[in-house]
Write a structure and sequence with these properties.
- This protein is of the alpha+beta class.
- The protein starts with a strand and ends in a 7-residue tail after the last strand.
- The mean pLDDT is 96.
- The protein has five helices and eight strands.
- The radius of gyration is 16 Å and the shape is globular.
């Protein structure tokens, strides 16, 4: 299963992607607001990916994990995912991470829009949500740029590098105004 935007394509991960995902999670810049931390070895990354890869074969699927590639070259630039509620609430929570050398090129905004659009158009969600550490100004800007609304604050909910940090909760619903 793959989805495309103007410059990007997101494809389901496979075991062949472990090395590039491990590399992505090994950058200190990527770890700044990451709850999983820098993996100590490749095995730790395999354990992280296992539920997502196994979920690909489940009937009542709720976990999706994609690699983000540049459309023209299929170069790996990051990851994205969505967790579906699979209930009457029809909601999904998105996430994305990019390699630091791909920051500032508009890819985060483009992939976030693609995730929201996929949630509404392909998964028939009513609501798409995202959480973000309150100090992650780049990601906050992305979520607001794509039309998500800040709905609240979760105090000291994210375990980041041994400390509990605050998280903003963002959401967009299917009938909110958006240009994508």
């Amino acid at each position: 299963m793959a989805y495309k935007s103007k410059r990007l394509i997101i494809r389901e991960i496979t075991w062949n992607d472990v090395d590039v995902i491990h590399n992505l999670h090994s950058f200190p810049e990527v770890d700044e607001f990451n709850t999983i931390g820098v993996p100590t070895d490749i095995r730790e990354t395999e354990v992280l990916l296992k539920p997502y890869i196994e979920a690909q074969n489940t009937e009542a699927r709720k976990l999706y994990f994609w690699k983000i590639e540049l459309m023209v070259s299929q170069k790996f630039i990051g990851i994205a995912g969505m967790t579906l509620s699979l209930d009457k609430f029809k909601s999904g929570e998105i996430f994305y991470k990019l390699l630091p050398d791909q920051w500032g090129k508009g890819y985060a905004t483009e992939v976030a829009k693609l995730l929201v659009k996929t949630g509404f158009d392909k998964f028939h969600l009513h609501r798409v949500e995202a959480g973000v550490a309150t100090e992650n100004l780049r990601s906050i800007k992305v979520l607001e740029k794509i039309g998500m609304n800040r709905e609240g604050l979760h105090k000291k909910i994210l375990p980041v590098r041994g400390e509990w940090v605050d998280n903003y909760h963002y959401a967009i619903v299917e009938d909110d105004d958006r240009d994508y």
